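Write out this protein's structure.
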Amino acid sequence: MKAFSQATFLASSGSSTDMPPAGPPEIAFAGRSNVGKSSAINALLGRKRLAFTSKTPGRTQTLNFFELGDGARLVDLPGYGFASVPQAVRAQWETMVGSYVTSRDTLVGVVLVMDARHPLTALDTQLIHFLGDVRLLALLSKADKLTRAEQGRTVKSVEASLRTDVRLFSSLTRQGVDECRDLLERWLIQPTPRRSPE
């Protein structure tokens, strides 16, 4: 199964009422604004600009659906923690994302993208608790900014806190790209296990 090499844009949704009908299994990507989420998606898909990247926090304001090969989808969720965005808009996005995560029966797991230099912020932790027992991959982006020793310590610390899959990742050096892609493809073809209680 090589789903990630056949990605095409499907649709953008600005509310819980205009999402594409549920169909094939979906993997959602979440993360704080400007943490490298879109870059990670593009690296995994082998594309340069399929998911739009920006230096402006809060650029992704919709749920963006991508069709993958072999009957699967990837969903890019709006970033969170964007201080410059009005509170009313933040609340609207949070409602939209919450509705998707809690009601989408075809969601097989969430990839939480965190900056490897600053993982598990208060906002990250809030999202993790909100997700409950949804299958989770903690993707530590910008790993190239850390030394090898720092990478090892960071992975151990996050694993101890989450008890879930943790992977170092760099869209610049391609560290972890193939490994993460293989893991996510397995998600799409294997039953969804429950995470261990934290």
